[in-house]
Amino acid sequence: MQVTADLSLVSLIANASLLVQLVMALLLIISLMSWWYIFRKLFTIRRAREQADEFEKQFWSGVDMTTLYQVAVKTRHSAGSLERIFEAGFREFTKHKTRPGMNVEAAMEGTRRAMRATYQREMDRLEAHMAFLATVGSVSPYVGLFGTVWGIMNAFRGLSNVVSATLAHVAPGIAEALIATAMGLFAAIPAVVAYNRYARDIDKLAIRYESFMEEFSNILQRQAHA
């Protein structure tokens, strides 16, 4: 008697064991969430880069810092990271400057702390959901492999009730099990690529912010001594 099997993708998923189907569903959800964060992070980093370009252009154009600070305060909710760092530093410096007998070292130390605190908050915002992408990239293949191992185990267990085992008996079970591995890789590969790309972009922004803080601190220090 010839054994025929429907090896279409939909049929294989529908006929898979419950545990394998749960693994596939989990990987599908993880993949969709991963793509959502990938696109969201793409626009976030691009916007941060554009805002940094725009603010640096204004800052180095020679505009009065007090005017720039007032604009930054008014547009605080829509301002970029670099603008918020500038606002925090200039606000702290102004507080010290208005006090009688200002201590330059204390003023600069407070200014740097204020900028560093804002810098850390901005970096936390840029790095949000990066851990999720890293986890998806490292764990998804193993989740898919677990579904594959379980499916292959079930396929070979089914041979215990067959007198004459042929490839047609185990092919559907092995095929449906391998789908779990494929889904695990489908979820992991984009997450790994996106994580590596975004981590590099965020590092570049971090270096850019730190350079600005150093340059801005030097400018304020010269003004304080003057």
From TrEMBL:
Pfam families: MotA_ExbB
BP terms from Gene Ontology: bacteriocin transport; cell division; protein import
UniProt KW keywords: Cell cycle, Cell division, Cell inner membrane, Cell membrane, Membrane, Transmembrane, Transmembrane helix
Record localization: Cell inner membrane; Cell membrane
Membrane topology of this protein: Multi-pass membrane protein
Residue ranges of every copy of the MotA/TolQ/ExbB proton channel domain listed in the record: 82-210
Annotated TM spans: 12-39, 130-153, 173-195
CC annotations in GO: plasma membrane
Similarity-based family: Belongs to the ExbB/TolQ family.
Function: Part of the Tol-Pal system, which plays a role in outer membrane invagination during cell division and is important for maintaining outer membrane integrity.
Subunit structure: The Tol-Pal system is composed of five core proteins: the inner membrane proteins TolA, TolQ and TolR, the periplasmic protein TolB and the outer membrane protein Pal. They form a network linking the inner and outer membranes and the peptidoglycan layer.
The name this protein goes by in its record: Tol-Pal system protein TolQ
Species annotation: Pelomicrobium methylotrophicum
